[in-house]
Design goal:
heterodimer; A: mainly alpha; 15 helices; 74% helix; globular; B: alpha/beta; GMP Synthetase, Chain A, domain 3; 12 helices
Chain lengths: 360, 397
């Protein structure tokens, strides 16, 4: 069993994961100085979605969404939904890995083949997942302070560059989020993967999930606020990895000018947490669907599948952005809102029918 | 049990090999540390000339006569190319080490390239993840080739010498400020604001130009680099110059903080005031539909250099403070009249309107029409080591 606190940190770190360097510049480009309001709206949407998942999970304590689908819709439809979820988790894991290797290749390791990053992360991740949910939860809780403090410290070191006028004119477009709703999908709807942990969390974790999403939204908003105030909306909207650039431009005195490796380690560890959750979700899905007696063969198969997916999920960063902008909300909405809502409706109808039959 | 331990050992050993990032390893002694970058473009042929000043690692602060002591502390490499990307390749015809731009301390651009526009250089630089744009940018007055081949006394590399001088000029003369880096040019140009960059020129040369005669000669005014006025930049393009005196007024307006000295008319004569600028605040008001910008400046006055007069009473102090405020207001008014007549918006009025009144239909027109009022508050805070000046008759004032 993992504790509610561990589940909370898992939610926060999962949600922040790749977001910190994939969509920051998109958001600032859309909303200019008001970009920091976008994650707040998106987080609100994410919290509503989380309430839906919680309602579903509470219908069948101790069961994961895959099992709930099988109970509600029968073995064949349940299997189809299960395999669908397996593919979703694998796709997002591949996507996350590819975002990671893109970042590493562009910033500090241009010559290292991307597959090396993918395979190494997957091997370490698979090892952690094979140890079970306690290991994942505990490890994440242990590393969280080592991510939190270096990240905010390195941003705080840049505070000398702060200018309030970069955030002006303020409140011009507080509704910008609604023209860019894909932010709701990425990262907030992806947090659906965390529901695979649900049966392993101590009872009463609803607050942990919802407040985890809220904390991530507030952190993201704070990061955007700082990025805008430190880089200015003009540069931040154009630079690919604005947080990295901020820290890259920090110099402590005249000698220490390269402290961005600290930030890089923080960011890739956050991504590792996201990968870990997705890998666990995929592994758990197989476990719940087919009840295998071994652990490693299908974990290795998953690793091979995901590392292949990471090379092919998109061709280049431009395509990545188009995928997020155009299709991600539909894609994520399908499996994380539509299917759970249909499941919930089925369960409610069945229960009311059963209740009526008992009365009759 | 043994097999498990052996398997774990093998896995660890394998990961050690894979985690060391063998593809991107960089050894310090395989890098060419670039300390200064010189950019030039011939407007007629369109050929770029890129010069890199690379630190010579074997020349340390060793005494003359010891190995390495006679070597040049920096080497200047030059490449003539049609596109900027070619420069990288051209340099490897000359440089045996991997270029490392991250430690560059100064970027120089020739006056003719700056007048033509520096956007292409800046885009190229921002595209490179390895290059930082938090480096001061200087505009060269005269031949950039000569500047890149000139030593500076005292500091080991010319880039160190230049970047240290702009810091000193900002702190003690207010002739430079914090916003003189490449990234500031980007931000200001993108916001349609004006920026003034320091200009650098070569001082008269004597002796063998390319050797280290600087070290041997006692006259440090010759054979070196001099900071000289400022280049006014708008939209990545140099449009004019400011002299050293106007630079002080510009940085005062820009809200830079630093000490400077002014001769102020006071009671039928002049006094020398040491002033510390504490920054500016701008407020936008409207009078009959016309924008009025109030620029509030706070100055701290010290009599540290005032050998003409020493205030004794509260009335004296108030009168002195008033005289300073009025004199600076007059100077700033004259400076703004002169620059606004040229169409330069060095006070950033257009940008202020953009921020405070974003819905204005014709901001350019409103900015040109805007009235600027200075509210200068001078406070006497510091004095030198005399509570009363000596009063013998052997003085000039």
């Amino acid at each position: 069993m993992i504790s509610r606190g561990q589940f909370y940190f898992l939610t926060v770190n999962f949600t922040l994961g790749t977001t910190l360097f994939v969509t920051i510049n998109n958001m600032i480009e859309e909303a200019g100085p008001d970009a920091w309001m976008m994650p707040l709206w998106a987080g609100l949407g994410g919290m509503l979605a989380a309430l839906l998942w919680i309602a579903l999970l509470r219908c069948a304590p101790g069961r994961s969404p895959v099992e709930i689908a099988r109970d509600a819709w029968g073995p064949i439809a349940g299997l189809i939904v299960g395999i669908l979820y397996l593919l979703v988790f694998c796709t997002i894991a591949a996507w996350v890995l590819r975002n990671l290797s893109d970042f590493m290749n562009v910033t500090i390791m241009p010559k290292t083949p991307p597959t090396i990053f993918h395979i190494m992360f997957l091997l370490v991740g698979a090892y952690a997942v094979a140890q079970g949910s306690e290991t994942v939860g505990r490890m994440n809780a242990v590393i969280t302070p080592f991510l939190f403090f270096p990240f905010w410290l390195s941003l705080a070191l840049a505070a000398e560059e702060w200018k309030w006028e970069r955030l002006e004119p303020a409140f011009r477009d507080p509704w910008a989020f609604f023209q860019y709703p894909s932010l709701l999908a990425f990262p907030f709807l992806e947090a659906f993967a965390l529901t695979m942990f649900w049966p392993k969390v101590r009872p009463g974790a609803a607050g942990a999930l919802v407040s985890g999403i809220a904390s991530a939204a507030v952190s993201l908003s704070l990061v955007l606020f700082m990025v805008t105030g430190l880089l200015g909306p003009e540069r931040a909207a154009r630079i690919n990895f604005p947080i990295y650039t901020i820290v890259q431009e920090v110099s402590i005195g005249r000698v220490l000018v390269i402290i961005h490796s600290v930030l890089t380690v923080t960011l890739i560890t956050l991504i590792f947490v996201k990968l870990l959750v997705l890998l666990y979700a995929a592994f758990e899905t197989i476990d719940r669907l087919f009840r295998p007696t071994v652990r490693w063969p299908h974990l290795l198969a998953l690793a091979i599948l995901i590392s292949a997916g990471a090379r092919t999920v998109y061709e280049n960063p431009v395509q990545n952005r188009l995928l997020i902008d155009r299709y991600l909300l539909i894609y994520d909405g399908f499996y994380s809102v539509l299917i759970p809502a249909l499941l919930l409706v089925t369960i409610w109808i069945r229960r009311s029918l059963a209740g009526r039959a008992r009365k009759g | 049990m043994f097999r498990r331990k052996a398997a774990a050992a093998v896995a660890l050993a394998l990961s050690a090999a894979l985690l060391s990032s063998c593809w991107d390893k960089t050894e310090l002694n395989e890098l060419a540390l670039v300390s200064m970058i010189g950019l030039d473009r011939d407007p007629e042929s369109g050929i770029y000339t890129i010069r890199l000043q690379v630190i010579n690692p074997t020349s340390g602060s060793t005494a003359r006569g010891t190995p390495g002591g006679e070597q040049s502390p920096v080497y200047t490499y030059e490449a003539n190319v049609r596109t900027l990307a070619e420069a990288d390749l051209k340099f490897y015809h000359l440089i045996p080490r991997k270029l490392f731009l991250h430690h560059a301390k100064a970027v120089l651009i020739s006056g003719r390239a700056a007048r033509q526009g520096m956007r292409d250089f800046i885009n190229f630089s921002e595209l490179q993840p390895s290059a930082r744009t938090s480096v001061p940018l200087f505009v060269v007055d005269g031949s950039i080739g000569e500047v890149m081949r000139t030593y500076t006394p005292l500091e080991r590399t010319p880039a160190e010498s230049l970047s240290s001088r702009i810091e000193l000029l900002a702190d003690y003369a207010l002739q430079s400020g914090r916003d003189v880096e490449v990234r500031d040019v980007i931000e200001r140009s993108e916001r349609d604001e004006w920026i003034v960059l320091p200009m650098v020129a070569v001082t008269p040369k004597t002796g063998n130009l390319d050797s280290r005669d600087v070290d041997a000669s006692i006259d440090a005014n010759r054979n070196q680099l001099r900071l000289n006025g400022g280049a006014v930049i708008r939209n990545y393009r140099m449009v004019g110059r400011l002299d050293d005196n106007e630079l002080v007024l510009y940085h005062l307006l820009n809200g830079d903080k630093g000490t400077f000295v002014r001769r102020v008319p006071f009671r039928n004569g002049h006094v020398t005031a040491v002033l510390l600028s504490r920054g500016t605040k701008r407020r936008l008001d409207w009078e009959n539909g016309r924008p009025v910008v109030r620029i509030r400046l706070s100055l701290e006055l010290s009599t540290l250099a005032m050998n003409e007069y020493h205030p004794r009473t509260l009335e004296d102090i108030r009168a002195l403070e008033k005289a300073v405020s009025e004199s600076i207001t007059d100077e700033l008014d004259a400076f703004l009249d002169k620059t606004r007549a040229k169409g330069w918006d060095l006070a950033g009025i257009r940008s202020l309107l953009g921020r405070k009144a974003p819905k204005l239909p014709n901001p350019d027109r409103a900015a040109a029409d805007a009235k600027i009022r200075f509210e200068i508050k001078t406070l006497f805070t510091g004095m030198g080591n005399l509570s009363r000046l000596y009063e013998g008759s052997g003085g000039t004032s």
